[in-house]
């Protein structure tokens, strides 16, 4: 090292040391009430990302307002003792090792490493994620994201996204400007009330918004600088969290009725005022709000509900795949007998979409709808849903079986799942119940009576421990001549040890998860410039996914693409959504591609347009310029 370099180094070192002394002495002033404050020349995220000034959750509310931090931190203010206690609890937990199902005992440790990279270098993070999507999707998304949400207060380090709380009423329109990005394309918002199948996790649910947006970046190439995870904290009804001194959210019961809607209305108005072209994906809202909010906003805002609409499309694609896997044409779908366990936001979303698809295939008449309706038997926590049920949920009412018809079938209101399966002998058993192990040995044994040449088991609940059955359970009882799909990934099953009858030795596990649709739907909405998300666009997305698999693949029982092809399928789905938006005359264009230019694009041109607008993780060349 030359003498000049040494001098430069020593002078910069002394500057650094000087700065450190100044800051540490200044910081000691601020710790005692009434002392001279430290002057900072930063605001907002810049402060949170500066290790000298950052106090994390210990910023007081007045400081948060003074420094444009409102909304950038969870609403519960902690003191430094509590912060340390939270950190130590998490550190100790590492020793116990994280477990989520039999698959990967180190999943949470991997999440931490990836998360640290995410905080340090986004480009590198997404490069790693895209190149290893098969390995790391189960870490940043289901199942590990469920574990992350459950342990969120311990894992919380650097905030990611925005928090709008009941305490922020009247402030949202201004606090939305605390987010530093001038442009936001995609928001995933949750109120934490039903995170995967894990119930009310309150503010910890923000992990699901972050995980979904990771897939938006990795699969759809949405620019990571233009995504915003959001948590709306209206309280929690989780008694454990309400009593936990380490909980980061509001410690009050959830707002209800008009008060709840007012908060969500204010949030929607605020984000669409600042970013009129943003798309808002509603995620993991409990069913009672999922449907109401969807109806409330779907005709006036660019929004959709992933659990209701995304899941429906993925299930339809899978069900059509299951028909093809029997060597039958898709048009035979209306003949399938389907038992659905779970009548929440996801189950009802699937039922409505499946009925519509069948009815369309049958000619879209009233009789077609009635006939389609009779193909479903719905079982919820109280058993088989029939017209005999008191206080039936209005969303489930169209699928309630007629009492007389059920008498003929030997089934009663509230009949158990195993009774229903035994009597109906369905082609498909589909679970969206959030009850792990619901497809018990008895239920799977009953599926042996299925009249299908190739019965299908969809254990779609997440995360892994909430799956209605494991792949091994399904294949070991039913043999390899079935179609199996699950919401969280399972490894293919080696059937040789089970010595079961069948025509092969490997049970193929499909991942039936809305991740195959929502990134493409979001990208298609963005690039088409449609002001709303229509049923036609969702249908086009589902059909595109259904048609993606080749005849050869479906005959092997492979009804969804491997996740390694998620970027390709997402691109095609986006193109299908744009095409539909053009046909519905809703496409307004995006940036320099106006509506007229968009209409002129050929199929190939459209794919190219989508591809060219997908962000890829490459380092840009940086140049410094003074303001
Ligand atoms: N694979 C995927 O892409 C998706 C999976 N899901 C999963 O679906 C599950 C349910 O989600 P939501 O519908 O929003 O929840 P929800 O809580 O609104 O609905 C759950 C439903 O299951 C029923 N249920 C409870 N116990 C039952 C039992 N023993 N037998 C039959 N039914 C029972 C309840 O009565 C209710 O109708 C969650 O685990 C979630 O992770 C949700 C969306 C997408
Ligand atoms: C996959 C998903 O959206 C869920 O389990 O809620
Ligand atoms: Mg969800």
In short:
With 627 residues, the protein is of the alpha/beta class.
Give an overview of the whole structure:
The protein has about 625 residues and is α/β, with parallel strands linked by helices. It has 27 helices and 16 strands. The strands form four sheets. Strands 8-7-6-9-10-11-14 form a seven-stranded mixed β-sheet, with helices on both faces. A five-stranded parallel β-sheet has the order 1-3-2-4-5, with helices on both faces. A two-stranded antiparallel sheet has the order 12-13. β9, α20 and β10 form a beta-alpha-beta unit. The N terminus is likely disordered. The structure holds 1,4-dihydronicotinamide adenine dinucleotide, pyruvic acid and magnesium ion (MG). Pyruvic acid (PYR) binds next to α15.
């Amino acid at each position: 090292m030359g003498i000049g370099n040494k001098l430069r180094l020593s002078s910069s070192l002394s500057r650094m040391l000087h700065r450190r002394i100044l800051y540490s002495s200044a910081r000691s002033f601020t710790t005692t009430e009434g002392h001279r404050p430290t002057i900072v020349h930063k605001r907002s995220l810049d402060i949170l990302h500066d290790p000298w000034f950052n106090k994390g959750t210990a910023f007081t509310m007045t400081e948060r307002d003074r420094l444009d931090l409102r909304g950038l931190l969870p609403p519960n203010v902690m003191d430094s003792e509590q912060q340390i206690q939270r950190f130590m609890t998490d550190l100790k937990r590492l020793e116990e090792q994280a477990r989520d199902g039999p698959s990967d005992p180190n999943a949470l440790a991997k999440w931490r490493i990836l998360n640290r990279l995410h905080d340090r270098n986004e480009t590198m993070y997404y490069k790693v994620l895209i190149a290893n999507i098969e390995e790391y999707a189960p870490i940043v998304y289901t199942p590990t994201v469920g574990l992350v949400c459950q342990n969120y207060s311990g894992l919380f380090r650097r905030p990611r996204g925005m928090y709008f709380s009941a305490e922020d009423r009247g402030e949202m329109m201004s606090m939305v400007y605390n987010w530093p990005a001038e442009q936001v394309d995609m928001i995933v918002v949750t109120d934490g009330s039903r995170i995967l199948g894990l119930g009310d996790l309150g503010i910890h649910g923000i992990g699901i918004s972050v995980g979904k947006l990771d897939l938006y970046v990795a699969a759809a190439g949405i620019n990571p600088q233009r995504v915003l995870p959001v948590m709306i904290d209206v309280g929690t009804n989780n008694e454990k969290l309400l009593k936990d001194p380490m909980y980061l959210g509001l410690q009050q019961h959830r707002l209800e009725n008009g008060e709840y809607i007012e908060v969500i209305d204010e949030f929607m108005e605020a984000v669409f005022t600042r970013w009129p072209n943003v798309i808002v994906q509603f995620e993991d809202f409990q069913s009672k709000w999922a449907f109401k909010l969807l109806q409330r906003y779907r005709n006036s805002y660019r929004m959709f509900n992933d659990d209701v609409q995304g899941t429906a499309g993925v299930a339809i694609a899978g069900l059509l795949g299951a028909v093809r896997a029997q060597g039958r044409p898709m048009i035979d779908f209306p003949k399938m007998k389907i038992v659905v366990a779970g009548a929440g936001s996801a189950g009802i979303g699937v039922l409505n979409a499946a009925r519509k698809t069948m009815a369309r295939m049958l000619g879209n008449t009233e009789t077609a709808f009635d006939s389609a309706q009779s193909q479903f038997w719905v079982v919820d926590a109280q058993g088989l849903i029939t017209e005999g049920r008191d206080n039936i949920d209005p969303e489930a009412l169209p699928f309630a079986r007629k009492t007389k018809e059920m008498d003929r079938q030997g089934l009663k209101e509230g009949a158990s799942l195993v009774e229903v399966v035994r009597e109906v002998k369905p082609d498909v058993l589909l679970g969206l119940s959030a009850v792990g192990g619901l497809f018990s040995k008895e239920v799977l044994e009953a599926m042996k009576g299925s009249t299908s040449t190739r019965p299908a088991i969809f254990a779609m609940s997440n995360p892994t421990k909430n799956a209605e059955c494991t792949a091994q359970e399904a294949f070991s009882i039913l043999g390899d001549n079935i179609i199996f799909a699950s919401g969280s990934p399972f490894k293919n099953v080696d059937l040789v040890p089970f010595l079961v009858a069948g025509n092969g030795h490997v049970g193929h596990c499909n991942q039936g998860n809305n991740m195959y649709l929502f990134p493409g739907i979001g990208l298609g909405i963005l690039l088409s410039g449609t002001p709303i998300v229509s049923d036609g666009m969702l249908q086009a997305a589902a059909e595109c996914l259904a048609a993606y698999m080749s005849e050869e693949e479906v005959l092997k029982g492979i009804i969804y693409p491997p996740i390694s092809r998620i970027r390709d399928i997402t691109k095609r789905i986006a193109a299908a959504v744009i095409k539909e938006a053009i046909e519905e005359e809703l496409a307004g264009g995006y940036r320099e591609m106006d509506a007229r230019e968009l209409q002129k694009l050929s199929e190939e041109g459209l794919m190219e347009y989508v591809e060219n607008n997908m962000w890829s993780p490459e380092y840009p060349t940086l140049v410094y310029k003074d303001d």
